[in-house]
């Protein structure tokens, strides 16, 4: 398995405040403009999820969704400092193994 040390500083890791449907991750209101949510998002700390290593899926086949936010989890200052510089895999483990094997067909009737 190929690993790479996370070079980005932990404060730079932050999901968008809105999900893909434009719902605020803090108050669950579409197109939220509350100063409270904006401020909470600005001071929040995030780290790469230690369960899925940032891939967003679990399991040998990658078909089980992780409960993180697109590969990130909200962190405390202590856990963010611990996660900074952690070695992370470049690809999910299930991609390191071939999903299928291609066998060459025997040539029949060719001279």
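Q: What amino acid sequence fits the structure above?
A:
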């Amino acid at each position: 398995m190929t690993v790479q040390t996370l070079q980005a500083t932990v404060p730079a890791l932050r999901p968008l405040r809105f999900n893909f449907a434009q719902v605020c991750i803090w108050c669950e209101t579409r197109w939220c403009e509350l100063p409270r949510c904006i401020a909470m998002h600005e001071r929040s700390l995030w780290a790469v999820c230690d369960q899925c290593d940032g891939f967003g899926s679990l399991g040998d086949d990658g078909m089980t969704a992780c409960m993180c936010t697109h590969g990130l989890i909200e962190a405390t200052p202590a856990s963010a400092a611990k996660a900074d510089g952690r070695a992370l895999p470049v690809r999910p483990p299930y991609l390191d193994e071939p999903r299928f094997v291609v066998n060459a067909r025997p040539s029949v009737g060719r001279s």
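Q: And what stands out in the fold?
A: The first strand starts at residue 3 and ends at 5.
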